[in-house]
Each structure stands twice: as C-alpha cells, then as structure tokens.
Design brief:
Elements (H helix, E strand, L loop, with lengths): L12 E3 L4 E3 L1 H18 L8 E6 L3 H12 L3 E8 L3 H18 L3 E5 H5 L3 H8 L3 H19 L4 E3 L4 H13 L3 H6 L3 E2 L7 E3 L7 H11 L15 H15 L3 H13 L4 H4 L6 E2 L6 E2 L5 H10 L10
Parallel strand pairs: 3-4, 3-6, 4-5, 6-8
Antiparallel strand pairs: 1-2, 7-8, 9-10
The protein binds Fe4 H S5 and zinc ion (ZN).
C-alpha cells in the first residue's frame, strides 16, 4: 500500500472511509485540507475574524487549535476549569503547556475561583448528573467569554464521531428541535456569538493520529463523568456499523445535513423574545438566566431532605 498523494510506501495511517492511506506529511496535509474545506464550504469564518477555540486539553480541541494556527487564523484558546479533581488539574496543565509551546493566547475561566462552585458540588446540590450543570456552565460561560472578548466566533472540537453519535441519539428519539439545531455553523443571534465545528470532516482516530504525529501532548483520559454515558454507547454502535461498512458515519451525518436537516429548521427557530438576565445581562427567556440560577442555588443549598426541582 502506498500514500495516496505522494506514492511513498511509508504509510502512517489507513483511512478506510476514504479508501486511502497516507504517509506522515501527506496525512497532516489531508487534515489541514479537510479543515480548510470545511471552513470554506460552510462559510464558518474568514481571515481577519477573531476566533476563540474552547479547549479542554483533549486531542480534538488542541488539534483544532493547532490546525487553525497553522492555517494562519487569528485563534485564541478558551479554557474553563470545572473543578473535577485530577481530571481538571491534568487538563489545565496540558492546555497551558500547549499554549506556551505555540506562543498562543489562552483565556482562562475558573468555575470554583470565579463563580464559587465546582461541577461535583453543583451535581450534588441539584441532584442531577454532573453533565447537566457542566453543559449549562459551558454554554453560558463560553458564549459570555467570546462576547466579552470581542471574538467573532466560538469554535469547538466536535469531530465526525461526536456529531454522528449526537445525531444518532437525536434520531432515536426524534428530537425535532435538537435536529434543527445540529449544524456545523450556528449564526450569531442577539446575545449569542456564532458557533462553528471545523472538525466535522475528521474522525476521532484521525485527530489522535494528528496529535501524535505533530507531537501535541494531550490528555488521554476522558472526564470521569463520561464513563457509561449514552453518547459513548452510540459511538460504539456506530463504530460497529462503520467496521462493516466504512464511510457509514460520514454518509449518515453529511446525508442528514444535505437531505434532512432543512426539514427541522422551523422546530429550532427561536420562539420567544429574549430578555436580558437581571443578574449578568445574558439573553434569557425569564428574569434570571439558568446559569445565574445555578450559581444562587449552589451558594444556598436546600436543607437536607428537601428535594429541589
Ligand atoms: S459534560 Fe460531563 Fe463532559 Fe462536563 S461533566 Fe465531564 S463528561 S466534562 S464533555
Ligand atoms: Zn445570568
């Protein structure tokens, strides 16, 4: 087997869904090309716009940041410390080391230091799974940081495997509203910055290979709260299908975007006029936004025995 691009016999990776294999340099070129084309085809952003990349220290977010810097985009990193024990300490160290190595600017927010709580405490107080307070905090704080920093766009490292798994879950339950919003680009709306996912053409394996081949040190451990979640189950199911039929994930996700996604657009349209949160100014349907409610709730936990709603 030879490299598809340069015919070298020194193959580092085989990509069955592309029916191709690549040598090191041509594989890195392939990754950059996939990202460059995705940004262009979906009109995610253009040169000169300021981008902030949400980074966790994992292969996808650090790989994305690296690719955007190599493509000469003006991209800063945004790290949110969640206070999840050793996982958060390791992810902070790894992210800072990457930023330093690339000489790139990293914006940091610390949930315990800046907002007075960590994710395990929020989960205990709200009596919900940790991912619920975590997802809410990320959505709120990423958007707020992007707006305050004057960035045009917030980029996240969701890859093809992530998007196909989320789509699978949304289709299983026919979540019309989520399906309507599952796009690689969400345009800015009042109070919300534009959001983009430039890695949708690259899979998990490609991102791991990209980081290893470029010497990016990333944290391999997943967040301990990810263990056993539905999302991982959907990934496994899709991996089994992909094994039998290479290209299935790609066809599922991009087929959805081309053929089905427009059918759900109306379900995702913003229905309510949004107000400004009386505490932080973020857009909300009520008086106080969900994040500020969470902050208050964690600061004043209900006495033991009382179950909060
Ligand atoms: S949501 Fe849940 Fe992740 Fe937050 S608590 Fe961990 S697993 S980090 S992507
Ligand atoms: Zn608020």
């Amino acid at each position: 087997m030879r490299c598809r691009r340069c015919r070298s016999p020194e193959i580092v990776i085989e990509l069955r869904r592309h029916n191709a294999a690549f040598c090191r340099d041509c594989f890195l070129h392939h990754c950059r090309e996939q990202v460059r084309r995705t940004i262009e085809d979906f009109e995610m952003f253009h040169a000169g716009e300021r981008i902030i990349v949400a980074v966790s220290g994992g292969k996808d977010s650090l790989g994305l940041w690296d690719l955007l810097l190599d493509l000469d985009y003006d991209a800063d990193g945004l790290y949110l410390g969640l206070g999840i024990g050793d996982y958060s300490s390791a992810s902070a160290t790894t992210t800072r080391a990457f930023a330093q190595r690339r000489g790139a600017k990293l914006v940091e927010i610390d949930l315990p230091g800046d907002h007075g709580f960590d994710i395990p405490t929020a989960a205990a107080v709200t009596r919900r799974v940790p991912c619920s307070a975590c997802g809410l905090s990320k959505r709120h704080l990423f958007n707020a940081a992007a707006q305050q920093g004057g960035y045009a766009v917030l980029a996240t490292g969701h890859n093809l495997d992530d998007e196909a798994a989320v789509l699978f879950g949304n289709v299983l339950r026919w979540e019309r509203e989520y399906l309507g919003r599952q796009l690689p680009v969400l345009a800015a709306t009042p109070g919300f910055v534009r959001k983009v996912k430039p890695l949708v053409r690259l899979g998990e394996r490609e991102m791991a290979a990209y980081c290893i081949l470029t010497g990016i040190d990333y944290i391999v451990e997943e967040c301990p709260n990810a263990v056993g979640n539905k999302h991982l189950g959907y990934k496994e199911a899709l991996n089994a299908i992909e094994e039998q039929s290479p290209g299935a994930k790609n066809a599922f996700y991009f087929g959805f975007l081309a053929r089905a996604s427009p059918l759900f657009r109306d379900d995702a349209a913003i229905r309510d006029e949004l107000e400004s949160c009386s505490s932080c100014g973020s857009p909300t349907t009520g008086d106080v936004c969900a994040f500020c409610k969470l902050v208050t709730r964690v600061a004043n936990p209900a006495p033991a025995g009382e179950v909060g709603g």
